[in-house]
Structures are given as C-alpha cells and as structure tokens.
C-alpha cells in the first residue's frame, strides 16, 4: 500500500544521523521532526533565524516573536539560538547545515528540482529553497510520486521552472525510495506491498532496478 | 552621545516621497515595523518600490499598502498568503521581482557593508540567473548579485536606546539587522525606547551608527500568521 504523508515523514526520519543540523521545508518535511530515531541528537534550523527549534507551544504559550519559516508558532529547546537572516543563509551557504529536506513538484533524473512556480497559475516565490538546494551537500526530497491526474512527477527532465540543478541526492515518495546516481534514478526501496512493476509504471524517468528491492520498514 | 530619538512616527518618516525605494524588515508578520507601515498608509505615499521578504497578508503588514495601491514594485522571496497581491501581480498592476531569500538578505548586508556585488550559488541554472555574470569558484558555478540601493530602511527592534543601539527578540530579528544602515536613512521603531547608557553594551545586536532615527511605536498588535499549538 502506498504510504501516507506521515509514512513518508517516518521513512525520511531514518535518514537523520547523530549530530546532524537539519533544515526542514514546509509540508511533509516539517513532520519529520516528530519521528527522530531514538538515541541520536539532531538540531533543527529554520532559515528565518533559529537553531534548536522545538515542538509547537502549548495553547496559551504562543509567542508572535517566535515562529518557524512556515510562519507557525514554535518553541525552542535548551541550547537554541536566534540570529538574523544574513547569518542564517551564511550557515546554509557555508555548508554548516548537514541535511536539507524539502518538498518538490518535479524532480529529474540528473537531480534537478522544481518547486517554486507554475507559470500562469501559481507564483508564490522560491523563499529560501534556491539557496538551500544550491548549497547543501545532502538534499532529500519528500514528494508524491504522481500528481492528482496520475501523471509522474519523477521525470527525465523537469517541465517547470527550476529551483536548482543537479542537486537532489535522494527522493522519498508514497511509493518508493530513489537514489539519484550519475546513471539516473536507482530504486532502493519500495513501500510495503507496492510492486516494482507499479513503481516503474508510475515513473516517467527510467529506473535502475538491481536484484530484489526490499520493502521500506515503517514503524 | 549622538541623539537619534525623534518625537513621532511622522518625524521618523519625514522625507519619504513618491517613487522612492524602501527596505522593510520582517518575516511574514513577525518583526515588521507596524507603526511605520500605518504611517505610510496615512501619508498616502505612492509608487513605492518595497524590498521586503514577504508582502504581508491582505489586511496587515505590507498588504495594507497593497490595498491602497501605494506599491509599484515588490522585491521579495515569497509572496503567498496574500490574495490582493496575487491579483495585482497577475493583472500586471504590480511589478514583482522574486529573488532567493539568502540572496535578498545578502544584498541587504552587502549594501550595509559597502560591498558592491558578490557571487552566490543560489539560482544558478534557473531563471534567476538570466542576464547575470556567471563564474566558477572551487569547481562550483556562482552568479553575481548586486548590493541593493534604497532610500530608506525601516526596521523594527524589541529594545533600543536614544543612541540608536538595538536589541532584537526571537525570530523577530530576521531581516532587520541586515537592513540597518543598508539605505541612505535607517529608521528604527522599537517596543521600548530607553535612555542611552541603560542597555548593556555587551548585549547590543546592532550599533547605533547604523540607525539615523529611532522612536517607540505607539502600540504593537504583533499578529500571528499561523497559530500552531499542542494540546496540554
């Protein structure tokens, strides 16, 4: 069965490593913070100027001056710090953030990503996404494999205006975990009960499928 | 001590004219100069170019200036959450320059620090890079971006003193420090204005040299855009 958003977030959370500084994008990536593997220490950075982001505040404790990049009220954890936007993106460009997890509308087999504009329909802006994808060494995309019309968003070449080129390393969708290799998308894992054939037929790009493909383990 | 205190928001914004370029601090509705925006609505200043990360919501923040059609051009990184903005942009009434958030911050800081231009990897290979000089450094492609030029920077801090020294609170800091001193005149509005000598010099985030005018805002609504809470 295909994963829901929480399932995708849980699978991506398995990519977190001890002592990682992590930037989470809006949407599914934000949910990843709820499923940090036991026994590891990570700190979340939000590009509007906070490191050491904690959970949402209890009702009545909201502070208009403490928000995340999704403009949601948040709390901070012991060891947290605040800083200005130029310093924040200095951290990102300077590659002090170990992992970036963000959403996408399309990803292509050479690691291009599109997630900020649909010409003539939706123009909300790129926010910090272009800085993040151009700078991070380790970028994981959380996205749906196909759109509402059933068309693949995992493509040979992106059709929408790009956010960054050749930057995505891994993609986790409701159907599969894909790695981007110099030869293109490689199928690493499949969602529980989803067949390789189903993944291949839902993917416009070619998929490298080697040997038995294990099922994702989602707790 | 050089006194930067002005009596009122009117005096603080004196000299802002039609067609000028303004920088305005804030991220979403967090850390925006509320009192100055209200005064700009009062002044009915028109044809403004506004450099600000976001464009407010329909009835607060820069959305108030958009409603009155006082803004000719917005330079921002993210402009969702504002239906009037979208309408004006799609109809061509409003000119919009969308740029990466880190580039926006750095173009402010460059203006503050006297750096005319810099190279960044953000936007390489995208439409943001069109017409810009491209150079390779350490095996990676970068594009050249220029420092902003603005007439006024209007920023908001938590506490300030009469010398113009500023302290920010939480994530209301955001773009405000990088905009201080990044325009010909910097106006700072603060929640609490104290006499010089009251604040600990060790705790100052932005030194007064970067601020020309400072005043205490009459009131702060500090609206929350996305109220997210946990159940106790």
Automatic annotation (TrEMBL), chain A:
PANTHER family xrefs: KETOACID-COENZYME A TRANSFERASE, SUCCINYL-COA:3-KETOACID COENZYME A TRANSFERASE SUBUNIT B-RELATED
Signal peptide range in chain numbering: none
Keywords noted in UniProt: Transferase
Stated family: Belongs to the 3-oxoacid CoA-transferase subunit B family.
Statement: the UniProt record of this protein carries the keyword NADP: no
NCBIfam families, sorted: pcaJ_scoB_fam
Domain of life: Bacteria
Key word Chaperone present: no
Name recorded for this polypeptide: 3-oxoacid CoA-transferase subunit B
GO molecular function, one term: CoA-transferase activity
Source organism per UniProt: Flavobacterium aquicola
Annotated Pfam families: CoA_trans
UniProtKB/TrEMBL annotation, chain B:
Listed InterPro entries: 3-oxoacid_CoA-transf_A, CoA_trans_fam_I, CoA_transf_BS, NagB/RpiA_transferase-like
Cross-referenced Gene3D superfamilies: Glutaconate Coenzyme A-transferase
Molecular function terms from GO: CoA-transferase activity
PROSITE patterns: COA_TRANSF_1
Keywords, in A-Z order: Transferase
Family of this protein: Belongs to the 3-oxoacid CoA-transferase subunit A family.
Protein name, entry field: 3-oxoacid CoA-transferase subunit A
Organism, scientific name: Flavobacterium aquicola
Lineage: Bacteria, Pseudomonadati, Bacteroidota, Flavobacteriia, Flavobacteriales
């Amino acid at each position: 069965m295909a994963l829901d958003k929480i399932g995708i977030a849980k699978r991506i959370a398995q990519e977190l490593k001890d002592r990682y500084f992590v930037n989470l994008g809006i949407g599914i990536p934000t949910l990843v913070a709820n499923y940090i593997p036991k026994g590891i220490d990570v700190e979340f950075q939000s590009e509007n100027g906070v490191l050491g982001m904690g959970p949402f505040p209890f009702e009545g404790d909201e502070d208009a001056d403490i928000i995340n990049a999704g403009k949601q009220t948040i709390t901070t954890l012991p060891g947290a710090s605040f800083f200005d936007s130029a310093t924040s993106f200095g951290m990102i460009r300077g590659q002090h953030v170990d992992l970036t997890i963000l959403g996408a509308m399309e990803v292509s087999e050479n690691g291009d990503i599109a997630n900020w504009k649909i010409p003539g329909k939706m123009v909300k802006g790129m926010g910090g996404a272009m800085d993040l994808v151009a700078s991070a060494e380790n970028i994981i995309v959380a996205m749906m494999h196909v759109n509402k019309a059933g068309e693949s968003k995992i493509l040979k070449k992106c059709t929408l205006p790009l956010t960054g080129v050749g930057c995505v390393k891994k993609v986790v969708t409701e159907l599969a975990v894909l790695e981007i290799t110099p030869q293109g998308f490689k199928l690493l894992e499949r969602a529980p009960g989803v067949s390789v054939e189903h993944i291949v037929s839902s993917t416009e790009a070619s998929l490298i499928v080697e040997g038995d493909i294990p099922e994702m383990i989602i707790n | 001590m050089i006194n930067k205190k002005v009596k009122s928001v009117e005096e603080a914004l004196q000299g802002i004219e039609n067609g000028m370029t303004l920088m305005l601090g804030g991220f979403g509705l967090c850390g925006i100069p509320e009192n100055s925006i209200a005064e700009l609505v009062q002044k009915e200043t028109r044809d403004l170019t506004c450099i600000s990360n976001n464009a407010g919501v329909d009835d607060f923040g820069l959305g108030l200036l958009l409603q009155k059609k006082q803004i000719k051009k917005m330079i921002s990184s993210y402009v969702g959450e504002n239906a009037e903005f979208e309408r004006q942009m799609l109809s061509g009434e409003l000119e919009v320059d969308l740029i990466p958030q880190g580039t926006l911050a750095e173009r402010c800081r460059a203006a503050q620090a006297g750096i005319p231009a810099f190279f960044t990897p953000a936007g390489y290979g995208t439409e943001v890079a069109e017409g810009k000089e491209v150079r390779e450094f350490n095996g990676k492609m970068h594009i050249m971006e220029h420092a902003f030029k603005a007439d006024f920077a209007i920023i908001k801090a938590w506490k300030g003193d009469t010398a113009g020294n500023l302290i920010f609170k939480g994530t209301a800091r955001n773009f405000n420090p990088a905009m201080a001193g990044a325009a010909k005149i910097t106006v700072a509005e603060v929640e609490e204005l104290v006499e010089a000598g009251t604040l600990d010099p060790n705790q100052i985030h932005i030194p007064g040299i970067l601020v020309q005018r400072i005043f205490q805002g009459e009131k702060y609504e500090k609206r929350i855009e996305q109220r997210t809470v946990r159940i106790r």
